């Protein structure tokens, strides 16, 4: 006894496979799209991380060699100064970040001759390639 699969069931199955494939770890953005060594990743809440984007998926961006700016206030003069901090000195010593793409507002290139590019280069040269003492 031969059973024929209705054409509508076959079409629905093909469409379901197509949709599932589209929901995978695909992204229109590729690492090779960035022409600079470092990128600025602006997140909801105004946090900005500077680093090297390694991988981009539909849900996460992997960033290595990560820096951020921290404000410090002098207790006597009350003057505030911004310093560049290399991630990795935290208790868990992270060597990379995985950022949820839902939290990303924008990604921009960091030009090597920009103020931030020069600060990263200076910090890395003072404390070694990894930016650590």
Protein described:
The chain is of the alpha+beta class. It has a single domain, classed as Roll (SH3 type barrels), CATH 2.30.30. 22% of the residues lie in helices and 36% in strands. It contains 2 helices and 6 strands, in the order αββββββα. It has helices at 7-22, 115-127, and strands at 38-43, 48-56, 60-73, 80-86, 96-100, 104-110. Strands 1, 2, 3, 4, 5 and 6 form a 6-stranded antiparallel beta sheet that branches.
Number of helices: 2
What is the rounded distance between the termini? Answer: 76 Å
- Reading off the top of the CATH hierarchy, the class is best stated as Mainly Beta
- Share of helical residues: 10-25%
Q: What is the makeup of the main sheet? A: 6 strands, antiparallel
Mean pLDDT over the residues: 82
Q: Which consecutive residue ranges, at least 5 long each, have pLDDT under 50?
A: none
The fraction of residues in strands falls at: 35-45%
Structural class: alpha+beta
CATH topology: SH3 type barrels
> Would you identify the CATH architecture?
Roll
Shape: elongated
Q: How many domain regions?
A: 1
Number-wise, the strands total 6
Q: Tell me the radius of gyration.
A: 22 Å
Element-by-element helix/strand order:
HEEEEEEH
